[in-house]
Amino acid sequence: MTVADAEKLKHAAAARAVEFVRPGMRLGLGTGSTAKHFVALQAERVRGGLDIVGVPTSEATRQDAERQGVPLTTLEDTPELDLTVDGADEIAPDLALIKGGGGALLREKIVAAASGRMLVIADESKFVPVLGRFPLPIEIVPFGVEPTRRAVEAAAHACDCPGGAALRRTREGHAFVTDGGHLLLDAALVRIPDPASLARRLAAIPGVMEHGLFVGLAHIAIIAGPDGVRIVEAA
Ligand code: A5P
Predict the structure, then answer these.
(1) What pLDDT score does 17 carry?
(2) Residues 209, 97, 105, CA angle at the centre, nearest 5°?
(3) Structural domains of the chain, with CATH
(4) Is residue 108 among the annotated active site residues?
(5) How far apart are CA 100 and CA 210, in angstroms?
(6) If pLDDT is split at 50, 70 and 90, which confidence band does 4 have?
(7) What angle do CA 62, 214, 8 make, to 5 degrees?
(8) pLDDT of 23 over the 90 cut
(9) DSSP sequence for 67-95
(10) How many CA atoms lie within 13 Å of 41's alpha carbon, on the beta-carbon side?
């Protein structure tokens, strides 16, 4: 698939998500190249008079939404949201997700958990039978990186996930720092047969702030392919 074709599919998924937005809604605004299409479409509708307010899931989305005139709020002022629309790195048939490829998983999860519903938008390359081919991002505190990394690998192996975890670096070779001032491990696990049990083990590691497994958070996925857009609902 060319980049232009992929962009068309991302746009198609975002355009379908617009149909779920009602006037007056409080929206979680996702991060990444697919969510960017949704933000742009909301901006267009706001210019046409739609009354919505958004909570961005990253500084990048905040800047993007602000620049386009989407009204924004915070979870302090608006602790309960109606709907979050976000992308994903992988989507399983039961709507368990891997997120955090863009480094925003902590805010994305907080915003999704504060929302009545989470809607995931993606091109069909993200829809997989089993999670794990995409390296699982794990946000960690900068203190004690090596013991945390080892504990993450031990948790993964205990859940029958092969592979290891490595610190994410920028192109210049510096450690990647998240919006929250933390670091990221990317765990190339090949397969995650039981995401819920890996999620529990990762959450119990002291140095782990949050991990990119979203289990039981997404309600609907909008998947765009060359033959059209389909909707998958959580069982
Ligand atoms: C950001 O941290 C991620 O969770 C993104 O939602 C995810 O990486 C999907 O991004 P794209 O839409 O750019 O593939």
Answers:
(1) 98
(2) 35
(3) 3-128+216-227 (3.40.50.1360), 136-207 (3.30.70.260)
(4) yes
(5) 10
(6) confident
(7) 60
(8) yes
(9) HTT--B--TTT---EEEEEE--SEE-TT-
(10) 20
Quote the DSSP letter at residue 160.
T
Select from 8, 31, 223 the residue to mutate for testing ligand 1; criterion: most ligand atoms less than 8 Å from CB.
31
Starting at the edge strand that comes first in sequence, how are the strands of the sheet with 81-86 ordered? 53-56, 26-29, 81-86, 115-123, 220-225, 228-233
Q: Among residues 137, 117, 114, which one has the least CA distance to residue 211?
A: 137
* pTM as predicted: 0.96
Which tens digits make up the pLDDT trace of 88-138? 999 999 999 999 999 999 999 999 999 999 999 999 999 999 999 999 999
CB 225 within 8 Å of CB 124: yes
End-to-end CA distance of the chain: 30
| Catalytic residue (one of 7, 59, 76, 108) | 108
**Composition of the chain by helix, strand, coil, percent to 5:** 30, 25, 40
What residues line ligand 1, using a CB cutoff of 6 Å? 30-34, 86-89, 99-105, 108
Tell me what pLDDT residue 1 has.
79
37 CA → ligand 1 middle, Å:
12
